[in-house]
Amino acid sequence: MGSVYLAERIEGGSKPVALKVIRRDLSSDPDFRRRFRSEVARAKQVPAFCTAEVLDADPDHDPPYLVVEFVNGPSLNKVVQNQGPLSPANLHGLAIGVATALAAIHGAGVIHRDLKPANVLLALGSPKVIDFGIARATESGNTLTDTGSNQLVGTIAYMAPERLDPERRAPITQAADIFAWGAVVMFAGTGRTPFGGNGVEAAAKILTQPPDLSGLSGDLRALVERALAKDPARRPTARELLDQLVGPKQNTVDLVEAGSQRAVVTVPSASETTRFTVPPLAGQPSRKRRILVPILTVGVVMLTAAVVGLMTGKIRPLWAENPPASPTPSPSASQSPARPQVDESLNAESALFKNEDNWATLKAKCVLDGGLVVTKDTTGTYRCPSYTSQLKDFKLQVDVLLKSPSCAAIWFRNANYSSYLLRICADKYMIGTHDPEHLTNIKTLQLAEPVSPGATFQVTIEAHGETMTFRHNGQLLGSVIDDTYAKGNVVLGIATPGSGTPDEDYQVSFQDLKIWEFGSSQP
Length: 523
Fold this sequence. Notes:
The protein is of the alpha+beta class. The protein has helices at residues 24-27, 30-45, 76-83, 88-107, 161-164, 175-190, 199-208, 218-227, 238-246, 292-312, 359-362; strands at residues 2-9, 15-22, 54-58, 65-69, 110-111, 120-121, 128-129, 136-137, 263-268, 273-278, 342-344, 356-357, 364-368, 372-376, 381-383, 394-403, 407-415, 418-424, 428-434, 439-446, 457-464, 467-472, 475-481, 489-495, 506-517.
């Protein structure tokens, strides 16, 4: 937009200021003037303790300018480039400082939309977040777009998925800044971004892959992981970030007065806290002046004995009465319940799929006759009526027969006509999301050899949490990680190529459908 100069303000005593001036070749552009006017307005709304205070501005001057407090500190980007990642203590302080700034920014009703290391200045006292050039005010939880339909303003490596996928048309909320906070903290602690690099490759990973958080550990890693959730609704707010960052820690060692009823050593475990009780020694009087050495000695001895006892099985932890649930292993092709909950040949007696004839209106129909046969003579998709239960983690197998150039379609985790959609064509599998208005492709899995005309093949889908795995005739094709949809039913149907002939006779058949629901029957 322009240049920033170090200047001197004479009025009220000489002091340094930052002077931002729009380039003359852009100052006549109405869009740039609008964005600059927006920056001035948003910067004035934000409390001065967390950003550079606005001292003067004239968006109508030729050229327009903005005068703000000079922040005498380097950017986080330069510090990491010149000195390397921050130490754990400094990283925690930075995380708190930036979260505090976001809480103030969001409290003023503003979404920053360009939080990145270059816009975090490490000033004396607390980090300051600057540059509100593309910030917008929140309106009813949403935000208006500030760029043209073919423009994307900001730094991709720190952009939330909802900003990178225009087909979803998801509103940009304050959660986008929380995503950027997670990426900034990751960069500060490791020197790299969670999705690697910038540009198209980073955008693709942000949309489809989990973040690489290696280098972070402990509570901060868990908080960054939550901030980088692909679903904005699953990210914490700025205030929730602060609560987690500055809240009390529970894993402590309790030193109690000698002669009290018990001395307690708290041992943190992966699931909960285990307490070992040490009875006071018989006949020992209470002496406060002798508290430290005896109790520490007993604590160390008992802690050592307890650890050895747990390892050898001679001491039973207190949770043995009610053992915590074991983590559910990620299912694989060889790990499925012994018997499927759904096992249908998809003949005329199917309990879960029904005949439907919409030929007169939609030129499509579903017929149960030796299998579920779906016919359509216009391009697009068509779903057959389905009455399967709501599924989250499951494995599905079905035999498919295609009439070229038709593609079979399987919608899963379908709720209110919004779901994942697997389109199965003769040469590839395409996985994406589908709602009444948009079909967005997440990943294409190419077949090594196209399916022979008239050949029946088996399709396998395994969904476990955010991970979806796809197999063709039992051979692994690939996986997709996405958390857009959590639960829903399974729907079968047809998808036709967009470039197909409008009146062509498209047809697919499904046979021998099996569905295992993980958790309802263990292998």
